[in-house]
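Troubleshooting: if your tokenizer reports a length mismatch, compare your output against this known-good record of 423 residues.
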Amino acid sequence: MKTAVTLVVVAAVVATITAQTHNPTPASSGQTKAPAPSKPSAPANVQTIATGLTGAWAVAFLPDGNFLVTQNAGTMRVVRPDGVVLGPVAGVPGVKAIGAQGLHDVVLDPDFARNRTLYFTYFAPPKGEAPGSWPVEFFYERVWTRPFTERRTMDLGTERVARARLSADNLKLENVEDLADGVERRIVIARDGTLLITGADRFRFYDSDLDGIENRDFTDNPDIRRNFTGRVLRINKDGSIPKDNPWLSRATVPAATFAHGLKDPEGATLNPQTGELWAIDHGPQGGDEINIIRAGKDYGWPEVTYGTQYDARQADGRKNVRVGKALTARADVEQPAYFWVPSIAPSGMMFYTGDLFPAWKGNLFIGAMLGQALVRLEIKGERVVSEERLLTERKARIREVRQGPDGAIYLLSGADLLKLTPK
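Known-good structure output:
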């Protein structure tokens, strides 16, 4: 029986549900199901740079031409352009890999060539617990089924963002320093030099569960959602709090909070035209979103969503059970710029600004795991005007998408590091 329950949980967590039949009405036209572009993209050349990168999550481009890759289980590795995989890099703090938690993003400081500073996110084990990889049920099924009062005594680990110095030989992290707790997904360096860090919903800390609950709202205490749903934190590079953060006047909201009401923001990037943060939100069953993140704004989870609870979680066999009070819009909640039903399980996100693919300049690219594609979106202002899915013939999950210094597009797909160039 334990094995059967675990398999159900894994199915729900990684969103391999295919019976998504609900068809929510968008709040505005053009918010979903954009048409295909008038001219399909020309085929691209796909080069496999390296293989064997199990659990690869993020990639950064070192000035010497090497790649720095994180792996969810807690290792960083240097990958040479010729495909040789080195490492692991020493000095990475202990990581607890469990469910969707682990070692995630890595971003180089803009002045990395001089200061060798980088930033990364990870899930730290509780005090006294050895780093390691745990079965998924220990973070999900064994948590959401417990009474809320019991959950509050559990120490499962801590989401963290840290900075460090990479040694000159790329083999060791030095001067590792934790900057903030509570977030562990993507890091984006804003135009003003602050760090914007996305973090997933921490359902274990409030009266909720993995994919939202039925017939519940938080109007009696909105700070619950501000503090524990998926958030974006904004901090300075030394971990201090910017003096213009939006919640400084409210003592019951952490000072680093920039925005809230997300579920699982696994992709984030700056819009090159506006400098604003755009973020992917990996929904429950359906309801994956693109959000434009603005100071002090609420993005709805788990009260407002286009998604439904996972079918696999319903012991009574119900399908497409709505989240909360089944709201898809509310006056005080920001609408997504775009959403997907059924789910594509998005992760990784970038605006293309290079010259190698001139036809793609200004387009938004998103990796799709369940959707097994590289999603290309043409953008006009804040609207998606067309959607195209590339590389579908590979039938492989895409976790990460980034533009390299050479203008090529680099992907982490399964355990492979790929490079896209024009044919």
